[in-house]
Amino acid sequence: LYYSIEVPENLEALPLFTIKATDQDAGSSGEISYRIIAGDPSGDFRLDRKSGVLQTSRPLDREKRPGYTLTV
């Protein structure tokens, strides 16, 4: 899936989006965890492993980096 999110620059850390996935397996085989695997080498984003809440970890600056493509 592909999601596009516009984020205002120069704001303190804020929640942006909640990623939702499902797995039909039961028990621990059906547990889902989330992580950013590409696109954020500077650590500008945080992703809660359990809830899937994606948020900025610091104010973003469009002049320094005009866009991001994150792989979760």
From TrEMBL:
Domain of life according to the entry: Eukaryota
UniProt-annotated location(s): Membrane
Gene Ontology cellular-component annotations: catenin complex
Coiled coil feature spans: none
UniProt cross-references to PANTHER family, sorted A to Z: CADHERIN 23, CADHERIN-23
UniProt xrefs under Pfam families: Cadherin
Record GO biological process: cell migration; homophilic cell adhesion via plasma membrane adhesion molecules
Signal peptide: none
The Cadherin domain, residue ranges: 3-72
Stored SUPFAM superfamilies: Cadherin-like
Organism per entry: Nothobranchius korthausae
GO molecular function: beta-catenin binding; cadherin binding; calcium ion binding
Keywords assigned: Calcium, Membrane, Repeat
Keyword Repeat: yes
Protein name: Cadherin domain-containing protein
PROSITE patterns (alphabetical): CADHERIN_2
